[in-house]
Design brief:
The protein is of the alpha/beta class and 146 residues long. The chain has 5 helices and 4 strands.
Length: 146
């Protein structure tokens, strides 16, 4: 299993644990300061992704494999978690989610309401006054030459 660092909740864990997956060439330690600040009402677990930090070394490192590694860490916690991934860790988290459908998740929730849209943590794309370009082109992973 991947190496992890636990940052325990300082005020008692009243929210689901937060699992943080770092980006390429990063490590669980990179998130230490942020993890400690987020660990007020929840335990925060930072993960060393495969072939990073103190986690085991493998001959391969695909996104499906990294997603399976994250699934193993989450299963070991024995409770539903919130998952945050940066860069490579974010893509691994998206692979773990697979063909996630918000409406299905909403319909399967206990309340049938799911999470309110204003609590989903969706951030608006930042814009710069007088800037050039279409922010949507970057969001889709395609850059346009100006």
């Amino acid at each position: 299993m991947l190496a992890t660092i636990l940052h325990p909740a300082s005020q008692g864990a009243s929210a689901p644990p937060l699992v943080i997956a770092h980006g390429l060439y990063g490590s669980a330690r990179n998130w230490g300061v942020i993890a400690r600040r987020l660990a007020d009402i929840r335990n925060v677990v930072t993960v060393d992704m495969r072939n990073h930090g103190t986690s085991p070394r493998f001959a391969t490192q695909s996104y499906p494999e990294m997603a399976a590694d994250l699934a193993e860490v989450i299963a070991s916690l024995g409770t539903p978690v919130d998952l945050l991934g940066h860069s490579m860790g974010g893509k691994a988290a998206m692979h773990l989610m697979g063909d996630w459908d918000y409406q299905v998740a909403k319909d399967n929730s206990a309340s049938k309401n799911g999470i309110a849209d204003d609590q989903l943590g969706i951030l608006p794309f930042p814009t710069i006054e007088g800037g050039k370009g279409d922010p949507a082109s970057a969001l889709a992973g395609r850059a346009r030459a100006n």
